[in-house]
Records
---
Amino acid sequence: MGMMQNGDRPVWMIWLVILTGIAVRVFSVMNTPVINPDGMVYIQQAKAICQGNGQDLRSCVPFVSNYPFFIAAAYGIFASWIEAARCVSVFFGSLTLVPLYFMLRCFADTRTACLAVLLYGFIPFLVGGSADVIRDPVCWFFTVSALLLFVKQMGSQGTFWKRFGYQTSSYLLFLMAGWARPEAFIALIVSCLFSLLHSLFSRDKRYVLAPLASLLVLGFFVTAGTVIFDPYFSSYSNNASDKIATSIDHYRNLRQQLETLIESLSRGELMSFLSKVRSLVWLVALGVLVGNSVAGVFYPYIIFFVLGFFGLSETLRRDPRVNYLLMLVILGYVLLFVHVLQTWYFEHRFLHLIIFPACIFAAFGIEKTTRFITDKLRWRPSVAAIMIFLYLAAFGLGKNIKTRDVDKMVYLNIAEYISELEESGHRFIPVITGEASSLKLVSFYLNLHLPTGFCPLQTPPVITDNNSLVRYAVDNDMKYFLWDEQNWRRTQVDINSEDFRRSFNCLKRWYRKDYGDIVLFGRGSVVSN
C-alpha cells in the first residue's frame, strides 16, 4: 500500500492542484477586510526591526519569531505594512504545498499525491491561516520542508555526505520552524532521536556517523541561537518544560473545584452528573481534542484520513518512514492533549502539529478510494481521479469561497471616522478601549501610518467609575473613549450621567453582535463632523 509505481507524470495535474490552492488562498486574503488581533503585534515588531529599535521589539511580548523579519523584508517591496504581512502569510502558506507534494511522492504515485495536495489546499484552517497575519504559515513551510528532507534521507542508500546533508538541512529547517512556533521543536527532538536509533539498529553501522555528525552541527546552531537571542530561547525552553507540570496542577485544581461544587449542591441530576464528570475530566479533554480535530480537518475530508489509517500494520513493518511520521502524529496529539488539560482552549490552527505528518494517511485513503472505484465499479483510474477531484473541490470551494470576518469592519470604520476628525500629521492618537484585543484594532489602524511602532495590546489601569476614567484621560491627554456594552457594563462607568456628559461628547454609534452597542466619545472640544 502507498508504494505504487510512478507511471506517467500528468504535469498538468500537478500545476492545477497547486495553482488551485494558491488561488483559494489569494481569494481568502482579498476577502479578509480586517486583520486578526495577533497581527498587530507582529507588524509592530516589524516596524521596530526596520527602525533598529530593540526595546520596542519586545514591548508587547517577550519573544520574537522570524515572522516579523520576513514582514520587514517584504515591506521594502510593498510599502504597506498590512500588505507586506499578508503577502508573507499567503506566500509561505501557498509554498507549503510544494514540499508537501514531493513528500507525498515518496509514498504514492503522482495522481494520488496531487489529490492529497488538493485536499490540503482546501482544508479551511490552512486557507484561513494563510490569509491571517500570523506566524503559522512560516512554521508550516519549514516544518514540511524539514519532514521532506528527513523522509528522503531515510529512504536514501547514498553516501555518508548525502545523508549528512539531508539530515543537517532537515534539522536546520526544523529550527526555523521552531523559531516561528515553539511547538515545532517537538518534531526536531523526535527526528534526532529517531534518526539515531534507526541508524543504530540498521544493518549498515556506517550510517550511525551521519546522525551523530548532524547532531553536532545542530548543537552548534542551538548554542549560537541561545547566546544571540537569549532570553528569547530561554523563554521558549522554560515554557516548554513547565507545560506538563502546569497541566497536571490545572487538572488537580479542576477536580477540586468540581468536588467543591458537588458538595454545595443538593441531590439531583446535576450533582450526579458532576460526580461522574469529576472522575472523567481526562476523557472530556480527549473528546474536546477529537471533536476539534474532526472539525478542523473538515468533516467531508476526514474519511480519507480514517481510511488511510486502517490497515497500516504491514506498511509499518516494512517502512520506517511511516513509523516516523506516525510517531510525530501520536506525540503531537499528546502535546495537544496536555494543552487542553491546561487551558481548555483549542483552535483549529493548533492541528498543524499532526496534520502535516498525517498527510500519508490522507494519501493512503485516497489510494484506497481510487482502488475501490476502479476494482468494484470497473472505471478507469483517470475517471476515479476526476471524481475525487470534484468531491474535494465542491466541498472545499463551498467552505472557503466567502468573505471572512465582515463584522470586524466596524473597527476599521471607527478608525477612519476618528482620522477624519483629526488633522493629518505624524502624532500618535490614543483611544481608551476595553480589554478585548479586537477593540485594540481601532488604535492600530488609526496609527498604522506612523513609522515607529507601539504596543497595541497595552491596557489602561483598572477603570471602575467616571472619576477614574476622566482622571486617566486627562493625565494621559487622551481625547477618545470607545465604550462597548460588553466590557463597560460590568463597571460603574455611567455614560448617561451628568458628570460623564460634562467631560465627554457622544460622537457616533456602531453595533457589533459580540460586543453590543459601541459608542465613541470625544473629550473636551471634540465634536462630530
---
Amino acid sequence: MTRLAEFVLRHRLLVVVFWFVMVPVGGIAAGLTSDRLTVDFSLPGQQGYQTEKQILATFGNGGSNPPTIAVVTVPKGTTVDEQLSKITPVFDQIKKALPQTRFVDYAETKNPVFLTDDKRTTYALVYPTEFKSFTDVGPDVKMKPILAQASKDTGFDFGVTGYNLLAQGTDDPEAPSLLAETLLGALGALAVLVFLFASFLALVPLIIAAVSILTTFSIVFLGTYVFDISFVVQFLIALVGLGVAIDYSLLVVNRWREERAHGRENHEAVVIAMNYAGHAVVASAGTVAISLCALLVIPVPLLRSMGIGGMLIPLVSTLVILTLLPALLGSRIGPKVDWPRIRHEGRASRAWTAWARLVVRWRWVAAGTALVILAALIIPIFGIKIGQSQTSSLASGGPAYEHLQTLRNGGVPGGVVSPMEVLVKGSDPAGSAAQVVDKATKVGGVAAAFAPDNKQWRKNGYALIGVIPTDETVDSGKAHVVTQVSDAVKPVPGFVGIAGVGATVLDYINAVYKKFPYSLGLIALVTFFLLVRTFRSIVLPIKAVLLNVMSVAATFGATVLFWQDGHGSQQVFGVAPTGAVTFWLPVLIFAFLFGLSMDYEVFILARMREEYDKTGDTDKAVVAGLARTGRLVTGAALILFMAFLALSASPGTDIKVFASALGIGILLDATIVRALLVPALVSLFGKWNWWLPSWAARPLRVEPHAAIPEPRKAPTGHPLEPVGSD
C-alpha cells in the first residue's frame, strides 16, 4: 500500500485528470444505461418457468405476468346482463387495440365468477405480452383512454386495475425520481460529514462518491453489451454506491487528519493513512464483493446479473479511493479545504472513550444485553413468508385501488389478481381442457376455472385453461393451492404444467432458498479466510462472521415484524401489512447487508489490532480502538441510513421494504452489534482474540501469535479522559 501511495503522489496530476475525465463520460453512460437494462425474472429448469416459456412461445402473452383487469359498473337499477350490448363493444375495442394480448370476460365464458354479487359489475382479464425491457409498458396504457371515453359515452363506470398497476404504488408524476433520491441521500450525507469534519473537507467524500458512481455506470453500460444486467442495479449503484464510497473515503480522510494533527508532514500523513486505513478499505471492499459472489451461485439470471453489477460498486469505489483520494489529499487542495478545522483529530473522542471504558468495565452486562436484544429480533424470522406483497399493501388509494375494492366488496375472489394458467397439449386439446376445468373446480381453494374456445386460448395443438383461486396466491402461505391443482390435473392427457404468480413463488423457493444454505456457507468460509489474513487471528474472524449472521438475521426478524406483520408499516409509511417478503428481496438484502455491515467490523477491529500491537493490552486496545472509530462508524452508518431513507421514498412497496431493511440493519449493526457487543466480546476473550497458531500463520505469510492469558483488570484512567493514539 505504501508503494501505491508513493506512486500516486508522484503522478497525482495524471491521476486527477484521468478520474475527472471519467465524470462526463460516466454522466453520459448513466443517461444511456437505463434503456439497456433488462427485466429478466427467468428461472431455468423450474416447472412453472418452463411452462411459462411454452405459453409465451405459443400464445405470446401471459405466464407469470399477471393480467390487467378492465372493470365496468353499470348504474343502479340495472344489471350487467341487461347492459351487455353496450359493454361488449368497448371490450372489443380493447381487443383491437391490443391484438397481441389474450382476453377473457363474462360474455365469452358466462361464468358467474366474472360478476359481482349484485350483478352490476363485471370485469375482463387482459393477459399482457412479455416484458423484455425496463421501459416496456403494460396494456393499461392503451386501455385507459378507451375506457375513459366509454365512461363518457355510456355513463358507466369503466376503469382498470391489476397487480402490476397496484405495485406501482402511485400515479403521481411528482413521485421522487432516482436522481431526486440520490440527491436527497447526498444532502443527508453532507450534513453528517459537516458534523464529522467541521470543515470544507466534508465535500471531498462526496466528490469521491460522485466519481465512483459515474465510473460504475460507465462499466455497467459497457457490460450490457456482453450480458444482461437487471434494472435494479441502477438503484444499487446510485444509493449503495453513495454510501460505500463515502464510508471508505471517510476512513482514509479521518486517518489523514489524525496524522497531520500529530505533526506529520502532509506527504507522510497521506502515506501513513493509506498504509493503515487503505488496508482496512481493501479488506472491507473484498468482503462486500465476496458476499455478492453468493448471488452468482444461485441459478437465477436476475440475481446473478445483480451480483455482477453489484460487485462493481465496492471494487470501483476502492480503486477511486486508493488513487484519486490520496492524489487530492497530497496536493495543495487537501490542506486548504481542511478549513476552518473546528474539530481536531489529535485526541480521541471523549464521549466514545467514556463509553468504551464503560463497556469494558461491564463487559458481561453489555454482551448479555446485546445478545438478548438480538435474540428477540431474530425470533420472528421463523415466521417469514416468501412471495410477493399482498395487494392491500401495494396501494391505499387511486383509481386502480378503488376499482379493485369494488370487485372485492362485490364478492369477486381475491385470486383474480393472480390467476393460474394450465397448459395442455395433444390430439384432443378441447377434451383435455374440459377435464382440467372439471378437476380444478373441485380443488379446495379454487373459485372457478374456464377454457374459452377461441384462437387466443387454443393454438397449434395447445389449449390454455384459466383458474381463479379463492385467495391471492402471492406468497408461500397461499401458493400451496398451485400444487394441489397440479396434483389434481396431472392425470389429464397432455398436461404440460401450470404458470402464474403462485407457480413463480414456488419456483423461487425451489431454485433459490433450497440452495441458499450453500451460498451462506461459501460466504462465511471465504470471508473467514480473508479476515484471518487481515486481523492475523483465528478468533476474531469467527466472531465477525457469526455476529454478522446474527445481525442480518435480526434485521430480517425486524423486517418480518414491521412489514409482513404490519407492526409499524401503516404508521410510518401508510402501507398495510404485506403478508410476505417479496421472493427476490431476502437474498439481495442478505448479500448487501452482510458485506456492508462487515465494513464496520473491519474498521473497528483493524484499529483495535493496531492498538494492541502497540500496547500488548487487550482492554487498552478496545478502549483506544473504539474511541478512535466509534464516531467514524456512527457517522458512516448515518450516511448509509440517509441513502436508504431517500430510497424508501420510492412509491413501490418492494423498494420501501428493501431500503428500510437495509437502513434498519445498518443502524442495528452500528449500535447494538459494533458499539456494544463487539467491544464487550473482545474484552471478554482477552489474549485469545489474537491467537494465530503457526500452522495457520505460515500459509498466510504472517507472524503467529500464542494465546497467553493476561490478567483481568479494569481500564485505568478517568472515564472521560481521552485516549491518544500513540
